Amino acid sequence: MSDYQSGEAVARAFFAAWNAGDADAIGALFVEDADFVNVVGFWWTSRRQIRKAHDYGFRKIFQHSVIAIQTLKVRALTPDIHVIHSVSTLEGQTSLDGQATDTRTAVISMVAVRAPGQGFRLVSCHNTDRVDGADTHIRTASGFAPAKY
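User: That's the sequence. What structure does it adopt?
Assistant: Structure tokens below.
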């Protein structure tokens, strides 16, 4: 297990593990009781759940996906607590029937803490899809639709 010396290092390791399709490596970046909220609001509350969900995704729809970091910003709240925000693009996702999908843009927020003897680990991650031209979503009987106000 690597000793990540900053929030930035552990965040970059997350994206590298994603690009390698390595759910075990992703899981290892998180503390045991970590929280992860995905783009549709599923909330995983343990390293085991986070690893399992990513493993499933890598086998079903993200097996050819690549994330490219566009922006990465770190705010050190204390020397041992870092908040990381990133904007990234994801290409290569497929639909469940194997069809190529369009590029997605995400804003991902992470909180990393320095664990004794382990360097930084992630305690929280929240992934949000960016919808260009939208300020909010409107919920209707047929689902969510982007809206501008």
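The domain at 7-132 is CATH 3.10.450.50 (Nuclear Transport Factor 2; Chain: A,).
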